[in-house]
What does this fold into?
Amino acid sequence: MFIHHIWGEARVQPPDRAPERMALITMKTFGSKPLAFFLALTFLLLSWPASVHSQEPTRKVVKRVEAQYPSILKKRGIGGTVRLRVVVKADGAVKDTEVLGGSAILADSAQKAVKQWVFAPGASETTMEVSVVFDPTHDSEN
It folds into this structure.
């Protein structure tokens, strides 16, 4: 959000609009900067989309497959966390995954594991974020 105030006018640019679509509010403020700011802010809030990102409920994991920890990385003490965006179909199967951040060398293992997860069925397709942790000090039974 960008709000620019110049004597007698306030320019408002919501973050989802291009600069050429900036709203221009011109008024006689007589030095009343708080009023101009208030009106510009009100305009911005009224023009803001109702939901920029819908917060979807977290669906329970019914079947979790552990990620394969590359043995050479584990022996060298290299670990980390991989954050993934997961698209879950209504029936609970994973439709797609996308790496959002974390250790690049562990991302492939994390994606392969999460694609095998099964979630509780839902009313519709759901997008959620999950984190897969690779801890070199944790002993797992594989």
Observations:
- Residues 2-47 form one domain.
- The chain has two domains: 2-47, 61-134.
